[in-house]
Amino acid sequence: MKAKIGITLLLMVGAKELIAQKETQKLEQIWVGYFNQTHFSNKWGAWLDVQLRTKDHFTDHLSQLLFRSALTYYVKDAIRTSAGVAYARYYPADNHSKVTQPEWRPWQQVQWYTKCGRNSVIQWFRLDERFRRNILNDSALADGYSFNFRLRYNFSWKIPLSAQVKKGSWTLVLNDEIHVNFGKQITYNYFDQNRFFVGFAFNTTATDNIQMGYMNVFQQLPAGNKYRSTDVARAYYFHYLDLRKRVN
Q1: Which of 228, 217, 222 has its CA nearest to residue 194?
Q2: 32, 33, 31, 37: which is closest to 207 by C-alpha?
Q3: 232 and 215 in contact (C-beta within 8 Å)?
Q4: Residue 237 and residue 184: Cα distance in Å, rounded?
Q5: Residue 220 and residue 67: Cα distance in Å, rounded?
């Protein structure tokens, strides 16, 4: 009996220590962004997005500024591939409290659209090659860059709340995107993060919309036993331009 009690107490202590080792940081942020897809011809187009994110308590300081662009090839209207480069600036954080860290990020993507009755589904696989500037200390950057790959899968489900998607109508949006790290410099956090979003899109035209809603970002940090759960108020504007010549 004493042996069973001892084993039970030992397991309880071990479980407590394991839970204590997994620290989860809670943050509250605002993410705003502009996303543009432009159709130049039947086969070629471009991608551009600009995003700005705050650090904590929704309005405290900035955490990241991101520019992303790409050339897009349309296999068909519902299937397209893109390749380009992104540039990010990470504003002062715990391990670089007095400097801003830059990152260059070449990326490639395949994206496809599916209609399910009145609903639509957008999916993509994206590969990032991340070159982040090394950090010397709290107040200085070091020479060179760290590098890793990151694979992302995104699933977005749009449910129109009216008979037609047109100017002034609303759409329910559910979105989930998972990020997976790999490469020689990744040791503990092969799982990078998951982003779950629920919100509404106000359709400014039949093709453009403003999405507003709540997103949770759950991320595993490089140490492996530290996590970050971020509650995000997100507002994105999605803008589509069709520059193809129309034949009357």
Answers
A1: 217
A2: 37
A3: yes
A4: 37
A5: 24
* Angle at 142 (CA atoms; ends 89, 190), nearest 5 degrees: 65
Task: Label residue 163 exposed, middle or buried (CB < 10 Å: 0-12, 13-18, 19+).
Answer: exposed
- The Cα 55–Cα 29 span in angstroms is 6
Is the distance from CB of 8 to CB of 14 less than 8 angstroms? no
- What residue spans define the domains of the chain? 27-242
CA–CA gap between residue 187 and residue 40 (Å, rounded): 43
Residue 230: Cβ-neighbour burial (10 angstroms; 0-12, 13-18, 19+): buried
Residue 229 C-alpha from the chain's centroid: 14
Strand partners, 239: 36
What residues in the chain have per-residue pLDDT under 70? 1-21, 246-248
Q: Which CATH number, 3.40.190, 2.40.160, 1.10.8, 3.40.50, labels domain 27-242? A: 2.40.160
pLDDT computed for residue 94 by the predictor:
79
Alpha helices in the chain (DSSP H): 2-21
| H/E run at residue 231 | strand 226-242
What pLDDT sits at residue 174?
A: 98
pLDDT tens readout for residues 40-84 = 999 999 999 999 999 999 999 999 999 999 999 999 989 999 999
CB 187 within 8 A of CB 174: no
37, burial (CB in 10 Å: exposed 0-12, middle 13-18, buried 19+): buried
